[in-house]
Amino acid sequence: MIPWPKPQEEFLFQKLQSWNEIIIKDSNNLLLIDEKGPHLKKGFFFPPEMNPCEFQRECEEFCAQRDQKWNFSSPYVSFCVPFNNENLRYTFIHESLTANKKSQVHIRRLQAKKLSLSDFSLSKDEEKIIKEIILKGENILICGGTGDGKTSFLQTLLHQLPSEENNLILEDTQELSSKETSWSHLVSSGQKEKTLYDLCHYALRMSPKRIILGEIRSKEVIPLLFLASSGHAGIMSTIHAKNAQEAISRLSFLYLTEQEHPSFNYEQAVSLVASQIQFVITIKEKKVKEMAKVIGHHQGKVYLEEQIIKNS
Fold first, then answer.
1. Using an 8 Å Cβ cutoff, are 237 and 224 in contact?
2. Among candidates 48, 72, 43, which has minimal Cα distance to 60?
3. CA–CA separation, 311 vs 224, rounded Å?
4. CA 16 to CA 34: how far, in whole Å?
5. Which of 43, 195, 265, 306 is most enclosed, with most CB atoms within 10 A?
6. Which stretches within 92-123 are classed as H helix?
7. What is the pLDDT of residues 71-105, one digit of tens each?
8. CA distance 224 to 141
């Protein structure tokens, strides 16, 4: 079940094959995003008799059926739903947060096709470089903008790992996947003692070979860097940033601002981050734009050596 009548399911998943994201503004307005960009659709997606209250009730029932708490006190929620052999990520924004007092639903189509490194515009030599640093257990940070393909690239890196390893995937919304039975996969609920921050703290008790964190957004940066500084190798994660310098800087600021009692200054935070992250890979428009090796730092400045660089 999805929050619209059956004919609209057919419209979305049979007649439209190329959409990447759908933003339901309200019961009468839908923004469809495909490879050509956004297209506003009006007045045909939901039945005309559906009023805002009915739309709100449909959304609440949809979340409740999947054990997701979504209401005035928990005004946003994000989770994945399998549908038609695909995975869709739903994000619900409650009406209490919007200016027009109408709830929104964002639906993103997750990558279903198994991608190879060559799908990210890498040559054979560049693929070899990336495979080598993965197998060496280097800590890798993947950066890029929204929709650029950070998670898809991280998923592709997971395919390069030995199947017999005891690896651990941590996420707040399940987007990554692994068919390896020796791997563990934990998804936070946001509830007390079940956040990404908590899962990172518990990680070492599971004796993982590698830790893969879906995305670094907030407080989970603290235990993650602790794991790295304690000698744990092979950590991989993603962060929103446009290049390697910005990624290191953002990670450093997160580390500072998320501590309850900061004992570091910015220069010390940069020193910690730069000493624990060995490589930063930048993804733009589903392609590897650059890969930089962190070679040093001094007085808050990070020094990088470009291993792969693309001009387009």
1. yes
2. 72
3. 33
4. 10
5. 195
6. none
7. 998 898 888 887 777 778 889 999 999 998 989 99
8. 12
Closest CA to 201 of 231, 224, 217: 224
Q: How many other CB atoms are found less than 10 A from the CB of residue 209?
A: 17
pTM for the full predicted model: 0.80
Residues 159-196: pLDDT tens digits? Answer: 999 888 999 999 988 888 877 778 999 988 766 778 88
- Which sign does the torsion angle of CA 295, 145, 217, 184 carry? negative
CATH number of 6-109: 3.30.450.90
**CA gap 35, 173 in Å, rounded:** 24
Beta-strand runs (E) in the chain:
21-26, 29-34, 37-42, 76-83, 86-93, 104-109, 140-144, 168-171, 184-187, 211-213, 236-240, 279-284, 287-298, 301-309
What was the pLDDT predicted at 32? 74
Q: Is the pLDDT of residue 15 over 50?
A: no
Q: Where are the domains of the chain?
A: 6-109, 117-309
Contact 196, 186 (CB under 8 A): no
Distances, alpha carbon 24 to alpha carbons 101, 232, 236, in Å: 14, 43, 33
Those residues with Cβ within 8 angstroms of residue 232's Cβ, 6 or more apart along the chain or in another chain: 204, 211
The tokens 């860097």 sit on which residue?
225
For 236, the token pair is 């991989």
The dihedral over CA atoms of 219, 221, 224, 226, expressed in degrees to the nearest 10, equals: -90
Token digits for 223? 């235990």
CA dist., res. 283 & res. 243, Å (int): 9
More confident residue, 86 or 44: 86
- CA dist 255 and 222 (Å) reads 6
Task: For residues 63 and 52, give the distance between their C-alpha atoms in angstroms, rounded to a whole number.
Answer: 17
Q: What is the pLDDT of residue 173?
A: 83
How many residues in total does the chain contain? 312
